[in-house]
Each structure stands twice: as C-alpha cells, then as structure tokens.
C-alpha cells in the first residue's frame, strides 16, 4: 500500500497555525453538518498550541465538539506535562467537551491504558480527525519503541488506546503514557500532521521513505494509512 502524502509548507509557525486551524475548523463543521457532532483527537506537546489558539477563535457550535488528546503523559491533571490540561485550557472556555484519557487514580500504566481504551469505546467512532505531532525521535501520539511497541502497532483493531512505557524515556517528558493505537489513528476519517523545524522534517521524510519497516514509529503508522495524509510544515 502506498500512502498518499501531501506536504504543505509555510513561511512561519503563525502561518501554519492559521492554515491548520482553518482545515480543522472545516472538518469539525462538516461533521456537525453531517451528524450533529464532531469527535477529534488533538496532538499533545508544544508545537500545536498556536494552532489551538487560532482554532479556539473559530465560530463553531462548540458544545457539539468532543476533543480527546491523541496521547497523554501519566501525570495528574494540572501538571505542566499533561496534554489534556493544555488542550482543556484552550477549548473548555469555548464550551467544547474535552475528555481526559487519564484518571488521576490510576498509577499502573497498563491499567491506565485499559481505562483510556474504555473511555474511547464510549465515543462515536471513527474519529473525524486525528491531528498528530512528531517527536524528534520519530514518535507520534505516544507510540514509542519499548515493551509496548508491538502491541501499539499490531494489537487488536478494536483496541483504541493502550498504556506505553517508552524505552528510552524521552527527556522532555520522561514518564509513562497512554496513546491511541495505530489502528485507532489510521481509522480516522482525516489524518493530519503538523511539525516545525528542519530536523523533524528530515526524520519524517526518512520515516516515510522507510515505510513499514521504518525504525521510526511515525513511519510504521503512515505505512498503514489508507486515506491521503496532509503534512503541514514550517521552518
Ligand atoms: C506527546 C505528544 C507527542 C508530540 C511530540 C512532539 O505527548 O508527547 O502528543 O506525540 O506530538 O512529542 O512534541 P512537541 O510538539 O512538543 O515537539
């Protein structure tokens, strides 16, 4: 299978943010028109925050919008590493339903993954959109090399989320994670990637070229996507 990939290059991060926010707005509006509701998974990390600031300004029927993080770090709500906290700060004031994947009471990462899966099983599926970031090490969502890599990539199709212990732990957030599975990501009705910087572009280009046997998680994910994927990039 050859994944159809379209690159969109922007002069700077602000231009990227405006364009991606516009595309996400359109996807949400289309889902609301078609079904009366939209369910989207948004990337964690820092790169997408300007996109979210732009998107939050959109005139949307926000109470019909459900947002989940595509992955989260196993930390309490409010922690600076918590993806849902960063996303919630932007979209809860607009009236969106922002659903955490992690409940503060779960300490064991595998149990946290099962709990996240149960939460996602209650949502309308497939996702209308999955927006992914990419780490400098080639991870996307929280699919990382380590003991859970194979399950994340090749687990049962109905498994939407799982617990992940990255090995090695990424220095910017050295904690266990919960993540959408590859099956959940590739089933989304729309898949978008937003990244900045030449280093991530180089990793992503290499990952795409390597395909299904890529050393990079994002390469393995993209090799299995059936819909066209938009990659938005700014230096
Ligand atoms: C996470 C993210 C992850 C993110 C990359 C890039 O929680 O780690 O969801 O997949 O997109 O790590 O993060 P930055 O944008 O902060 O570089």
UniProtKB/TrEMBL annotation:
<dbReference type="GO" id="GO:0017057">
    <property type="term" value="F:6-phosphogluconolactonase activity"/>
</dbReference>
<dbReference type="Pfam" id="PF01182">
    <property type="entry name" value="Glucosamine_iso"/>
</dbReference>
<feature type="domain" description="Glucosamine/galactosamine-6-phosphate isomerase">
    <location>
        <begin position="12"/>
        <end position="222"/>
    </location>
</feature>
<comment type="pathway">
    <text>Carbohydrate degradation; pentose phosphate pathway; D-ribulose 5-phosphate from D-glucose 6-phosphate (oxidative stage): step 2/3.</text>
</comment>
<keyword id="KW-0378">Hydrolase</keyword>
<comment type="function">
    <text>Hydrolysis of 6-phosphogluconolactone to 6-phosphogluconate.</text>
</comment>
<dbReference type="InterPro" id="IPR039104">
    <property type="entry name" value="6PGL"/>
</dbReference>
<dbReference type="InterPro" id="IPR006148">
    <property type="entry name" value="Glc/Gal-6P_isomerase"/>
</dbReference>
<dbReference type="GO" id="GO:0006098">
    <property type="term" value="P:pentose-phosphate shunt"/>
</dbReference>
<dbReference type="InterPro" id="IPR005900">
    <property type="entry name" value="6-phosphogluconolactonase_DevB"/>
</dbReference>
<dbReference type="GO" id="GO:0005975">
    <property type="term" value="P:carbohydrate metabolic process"/>
</dbReference>
<dbReference type="InterPro" id="IPR037171">
    <property type="entry name" value="NagB/RpiA_transferase-like"/>
</dbReference>
<comment type="similarity">
    <text>Belongs to the glucosamine/galactosamine-6-phosphate isomerase family. 6-phosphogluconolactonase subfamily.</text>
</comment>
<protein>
    <recommendedName>
        <fullName>6-phosphogluconolactonase</fullName>
        <ecNumber>3.1.1.31</ecNumber>
    </recommendedName>
</protein>
